[in-house]
Amino acid sequence: MKLQLLLGTVLFSAFTVNAQVSSINENFDNFTSGNSTFPQSGWSAVVAPMVTGTAPFPVPPRMIVTTGSDKAVQSYSGTNATDSSYLISPQIQTPSGTKTLSFKTTLVSPSPGPGTIQIGVASSTSDMSTFVPVGNPINVTTIGTIQNESIPIPAVAGSYLVFKFTPSSQHVAVQIDDVVYDTSSSLSVRDNHPSAGEIRFAVNADQTALEFIFKTAPKNIRIYSAVGEKVSEGKLKGRQFDINSLPSGVYFLNFETAEGKTISSKFVKK
User: Fold this and answer.
1) Tell me, what DSSP letter sits at residue 95?
2) Alpha-carbon distance 175 to 76, whole Å?
3) At a CB cut-off of 8 Å and minimum separation 6, what does 126 contact?
4) How far is the C-alpha of 48 from the C-alpha of 68, rounded, in Å?
5) pTM across the whole model
6) DSSP state letters, 122-171
7) 192-226 pLDDT, tens digit each
8) What DSSP string describes 68-91?
9) Which distant-in-sequence residues (6+ apart) come within 8 Å of 54 by Cβ?
10) Are the C-beta atoms of 17 and 9 separated by less than 8 Å?
11) Percent of residues in the chain assigned helix, strand, coil, to nearest 5
């Protein structure tokens, strides 16, 4: 009887490890701190190689989980000024184009220069030749300034979400936190009386603009194609955002509210 119970436990554990997740909500606070802690909690890393012969001595790149109660993950370039490191999510269900990846990022002191983050998907946790980029690279340029980023994930073949960190020089450290991969918010214009902080929008009858209803105007607006490429960016003119030049199709929209919350949604231009 005990043997049967043990076997059932082993089989269940194996199933859990290989299960694909439909969403991710990770703040890394329960991770073990350090620079050699991956893989853990389904996350893994592929770190850039150490460059030998650098002065005064070579320092290896690292993927670091920070200390303290509010933990985050940092990609540190060491003395390798050019090669990329990768942080890989738990295995996900094949993206269907209905979800958005959002996260916070900043440049960490004393980084001497900026870095970039390229979001993508991959079919392996160790072979980054399978990496397929999604959207445009994100420039992380200012120490201590938190950037709220949101990237629509298109319907592409891939088993893992990947953060590709590329430095501009030695000793660059770029940090991410509060990673959320979930269904985009569903926003629409339903009435003319939004509550405080609420923002609604719809495509106008002429299919030339997005019309917004709000009490406090949103900040910078970004629009992405169905394959994750940024196709438009700017601010409202009055209560409208021009989409006249966009061809018919499905688009993803994200913007930041006055309170600093990043909102993502989807619309169809006919």
Assistant:
1) P
2) 9
3) 44, 46
4) 26
5) 0.69
6) ES-SS-GGG-EE-SPPEEE-SBTPPEEEEEEE-S---SEEEEEEEESSTT
7) 444 445 677 888 888 899 988 887 888 888 898 87
8) SSS--EEEE-TT-SS--EEEEEEE
9) 79, 170
10) no
11) 5, 45, 50
